[in-house]
Amino acid sequence: MGVVDYLRETKAEMRHVSWPTRKQATSFTVLVIGASLLVAALLGAFDFVFDYILKEFLLDAPVSAPVDTELGDHDNLLSPEAVDSLSELDATIEAESVSPEVTN
Hints:
With 104 residues, the protein is mostly helical. It has a domain at 19-62. The protein is built from three helices and no strands.
C-alpha cells in the first residue's frame, strides 16, 4: 500500500465520520474544562488537607513553618523520639560496619 492509497482511504473513511455540530462541540468543550477545574480543585483540597494533617500531627513542626530548601539538618521536622531513633540507628550502623578484608 502506497502513500497515495493510504491518503485516499483515509479521505474515504473521514466521510463516514459523524461530526458533532458547533453547539455540541462547544458544550463538550465546556464540560471537559469544567470537569478539569473540578478535579483540580478536589486534588488541591486533598493536598491541602493531607499537608495540614502531616505537618500538624505527624511531624513536629508548625503548619506555617517556612520550607527549608537547603540541604542539611532537618531534625526540626521530626519528633524528638524520631530523632533519637535515627541517631541510635546511625550509631548501630557505624558500629557494625567493618571494612572488608582484601584476599589474594
